[in-house]
Amino acid sequence: MKQSHYDTIIIGAGPGGLSAAFDLSQQQSVLIIENDLWGGTCPNRGCDPKKMLYSAVETKQRQESLSGFGLTGNTTINWPELMAFKSAYTDSVPTNTLAGLSGSNITTVYGSAKFISETEISINDAVYSADNFIIATGQSPVIPNITGQQFLKTSTEFLSLKSLPEKMVFIGAGYVSIELANIAAAAGAEVHIIQHNNQILREFPTVYTNRLIDNLKNSGIHFHFDTTVTEVRKTDIGYQLLGDNELDLTIDLAISALGRHPNVDTLNLPVTGVEADSHGIVVDNHLTTSNEHIYAVGDVISRRQPKLTPVSTFEGHYVSNQLLSQSTHAISYPPIPVTVYASPQLSQVGISLEQAQRDPEHYEVRIQDTTKWYTFNRIKEPESSVTTIFDKSTHLLVGAVAYTTIAEELINYLTPLIANKTPKSAVDQLIFAYPTPASDLDYYL
Ligand SMILES: Cc1cc2nc3c(=O)[nH]c(=O)nc-3n(C[C@H](O)[C@H](O)[C@H](O)COP(=O)(O)OP(=O)(O)OC[C@H]3O[C@@H](n4cnc5c(N)ncnc54)[C@H](O)[C@@H]3O)c2cc1C
Ligand SMILES: NC(=O)c1ccc[n+]([C@@H]2O[C@H](COP(=O)([O-])OP(=O)(O)OC[C@H]3O[C@@H](n4cnc5c(N)ncnc54)[C@H](O)[C@@H]3O)[C@@H](O)[C@H]2O)c1
After folding, report:
1. Which terminus of the chain is less hemmed in, N or C, by CB atoms within 10 Å?
2. What per-residue confidence (pLDDT) applies to 1?
3. Structural domain of residue 26, as residue ranges?
4. Where would I find the FAD/NAD(P)-binding domain in this sequence (predicted)?
5. Contact 399/444 with Cβ under 8 angstroms?
6. What per-residue confidence (pLDDT) applies to 327?
7. Is 176 annotated as belonging to a binding site?
8. How far does the centroid of ligand 2 lie from the alpha carbon of residue 172, in Å?
9. pLDDT means per 10 residues in the chain (445 residues)?
10. Which of 140, 142, 176 to mutate to test the pocket of ligand 2 (most atoms within 8 A of CB)?
11. Does a structural domain hold residue 110?
12. H helices of 70-153, where?
């Protein structure tokens, strides 16, 4: 029989809820509730499975780049085998997560939590109360309200596809669409991306997203810009997708990648006084909701920071520190690097390129074509570019964009320099293994 009162109850066992749970369990009684897969979106149906599929794509493309420079032969992606490789990892995530929670004396309940008062929730007809609650319920994919919406699938189904469709569509052109379309095209599918305006990845500078569009087109992806899908019909052989601009496509699979909405609808928030808007739960700069005993972390909150795993984890640690009275300061986010795992990768951190270009009095922008640099030439990258942005008064690095197959690494080298306000003179005092991407660091500063 589970106890019914806890110091803290956490709703949602993704990266945000879990990071808070493990911290709090050192000193408190903690109950964590999950209504789907223990571990949440990232390891089950987000970042991790996506990047396992991407492993084959990056290896295939690296081999293609070196074709004629010592490598011969074609590599093809075997989708069922690749999916089995992914599943071998994801299948054990829920069990391993539960085992970790039990090992830390954290009580777990499977089911959907619903508030019945400010201090109580019900799950599967049982009632639990707590001094404090943390809502960490994440987000779910948006499905557009169009005729035939029931025929649309999402990233979740894509990441478990047993066989690769011959012809498929992604609706939307954000992170999910671009990354999954890139994987599907490299694996051999005919891929179409339909976007209601003419922009992809709106958070990134157009000078780079335009280059990415060209690269994705070269790898066979078809873009339909300024086009809105209005109807999906089931046919004998698949689906028919209709829309404005004379859109009429017969396809095997359509994925809705129009963004994600916060999971708040079934929590019965009105009994708690917790406010939510269309972006999620409204919190102050201590991640407290409009009820002082209820906190919210991760993707479910309404904030301007990107909705990413390390941000959710950072917030989980922040709230647990507050609840353990180890800190009372307002949350302060370090620079947050973001990466689109396409071919090539596109990463950025800090002051955006567009902001810097609007304010040339304060910022110096250095755009470098790095294609011929040793690091990139060695792996025969077709094109690469790194932009660094400096504060003119301090000469410190304040922002960066990387467009290369190793952007994920470069951005992680540059981020600490921005966060720690490291001057070039301090980097000059370091010795890095040579020749590596890190030993180029000096050239970016
Ligand atoms: C396809 C895809 C790829 C991504 N790739 C990346 C990437 O490369 N890098 C990156 O940093 N981020 C990536 N993300 C984003 C990342 O997955 C999220 O930012 C992260 O999972 C958020 O963690 P969270 O704990 O806030 O929410 P989640 O991980 O979504 O966890 C919330 C949990 O709460 C549960 N829940 C919801 N409602 C209830 C309820 N009423 N009762 C009980 N439980 C409930 C849900 O089932 C879920 O398990 C990706 C996302 C997707 C969809
Ligand atoms: N590599 C990563 O870090 C990574 C990868 C995947 C997801 N994520 C996270 O998941 C979030 C969700 O990703 P996403 O791609 O689903 O959302 P998104 O917000 O990044 O992109 C949604 C896209 O759909 C378009 N759109 C919106 N309404 C439309 C309509 N009616 N018709 C056609 N297009 C429409 C938008 O213009 C945009 O291009 C991201 O913002 C990010 O926080 C991160």
Report:
1. N
2. 61
3. 5-140+261-323
4. 6-316
5. no
6. 81
7. yes
8. 7
9. 90 98 98 98 98 97 96 95 98 98 97 97 95 98 98 98 98 98 98 97 97 97 98 96 96 98 98 97 98 98 97 98 91 98 98 97 98 97 97 98 98 98 97 97 96
10. 176
11. yes
12. 79-90, 93-103
CB-count exposure of residue 113 (10 Å: 0-12, 13-18, 19+): buried
Would you say residue 334 lies in a domain?
A: no
Predicted interface score ipTM higher than 0.95 = yes
Q: Is 143 in the pocket of ligand 2 (CB under 6 A)?
A: no
Answer whether 390's CB lies under 8 Å from 421's CB.
no
Among residues 258, 287, 302, the one where a domain terminates is 258
Q: Is the dihedral of CA 270, 275, 280, 286 positive or negative?
A: negative
Residue 91 CB partners (closer than 8 Å, separation 6+): none
Helix (H, G, I), strand (E, B) or coil at 360: coil
Task: Give the Cα separation of 107 and 358 in Å (integer).
Answer: 52
**In whole angstroms, what is the distance from residue 167 CA to residue 345 CA?**
24
Give which of 179, 259, 256, 263 is closest to 221, Cα–Cα: 179
Instruction: Identify the residue whose C-alpha is closest to ligand 1 atom 15.
Output: 308
Helix/strand/coil for 86: helix
Nearest of 435, 391, 382, 385 to residue 417 by alpha carbon? 391
CA of 15 to the centre of ligand 1 (A): 7
Ligand nearest to the CA of 281: 1
How far apart CA 19 and CA 387 sit, in angstroms, is: 34
In a shared domain, residues 421 and 395: yes
Residues 6+ apart with CB under 8 A from 227: 194, 195, 196, 243, 244, 245, 247
DSSP conformation class of 165: -
Q: How far is CA 288 from the centre of its chain?
A: 24
CATH number for the domain harbouring residue 359: 3.30.390.30
β-pairing, 107-110 with 114-115?
unpaired
Q: Quick one: pLDDT at residue 27?
A: 97
- Which residues touch 210 (CB under 8 Å, ≥6 apart)? none
- Structure tokens of 249? 């496509």
Please name the residue whose Cα sits nearest to atom 49 of ligand 1: 40
Same domain as 127, residue 175: no
Q: In whole angstroms, give the CA distance from residue 18 to residue 14.
A: 6
Q: Is 205 helix (H, G, I), strand (E, B) or coil?
A: coil
Distance of alpha carbon 301 from alpha carbon 135, whole angstroms: 9
- Would you say residue 290 lies in a domain? yes
**Res 3: pLDDT:** 79
Q: Do 369 and 305 belong together in one domain? A: no
**Cα three-residue angle 346-350-352, rounded to 5 degrees:** 70
